[in-house]
Amino acid sequence: LQEQVSRLPDEDAMLIEHFGRGRLRYTVFYTFEGRKANQTLGMLITRRMERMGLKPMSFVITDYGLTVTNLSTVADAHIDSLLAPDILGDELEEWIAESPMLKRAFRQVATVAGLTEQNYAGERKTMKQVTFSTDLIYDTLRRHEPDHVLLNVTRREAERELLDLKRLSRMLGRFHRNWRLVSLRRASPLAIPMLMQVRAEQVRGSGIEALLAQSALQDEAERMMEDARAAAG
């Protein structure tokens, strides 16, 4: 059934599907690289899409791929840039700097290093108190000792455990300039399970702003029509 609607994924080139539904556009990347790598790729691709003016709105992941929702059409001319290995440069650094991910990773490192005490004056600290303490230490080290050994350990642990960068780097090296984009009239059988995912990562940017603007214009147009009908009546 998949082959009748689109193509079957293969190891030689990444299968990418693009289709529309209403005013939204969907781009599906079949990576088969696992959830961690797909989560990271989704964050990086949507950042690059935002820079390219493609108005990304959200993405969802599974073990075998990710689907990005846009307001603009993704064409062949965009794909090489979206899968370029240099996406692990600027986009990655910007995302990590803005993400709370490193703070979460630092809490584990700080606890193992003995920087925080679970008990104080005979009373066990709440999770909120521990989080406040480790976040304060993290912010202080980043501000005054950005090359501190604990920050370096945190970065390495996050890259290994949370981002799966080695796997993602290998995938980009394999599929950059080696992909097949298929334009469809509707979702393929392989894409449907991803579209049914409940949890989507929202992308704050021009896509959401444009959609809100369109909704506002539509509401205004409907109000004008109602006023016109009332005046005519």
Structure write-up:
- With 233 residues, this protein is α+β, with helices and mostly antiparallel strands.
- It folds into 2 domains: 117 residues, no CATH class; 67 residues, no CATH class.
- The strands form 2 sheets. A 6-stranded mixed β-sheet has the order 7-1-2-4-3-8.
- Strand 1 and strand 2 form a beta hairpin.
- Helix 5 packs across helix 6 and helix 5 packs across helix 7.
- It is elongated and about 60 Å long.
- The mean pLDDT is 81.
Unreliable sequence segments: none
Mean pLDDT: 81
Question: Biggest sheet: strands, sense, closure?
Answer: 6 strands, mixed
Tally of discrete structural domains: 2
Report the count of strand segments: 8
Q: Which strands sit side by side, in order, in the main sheet?
A: 7-1-2-4-3-8
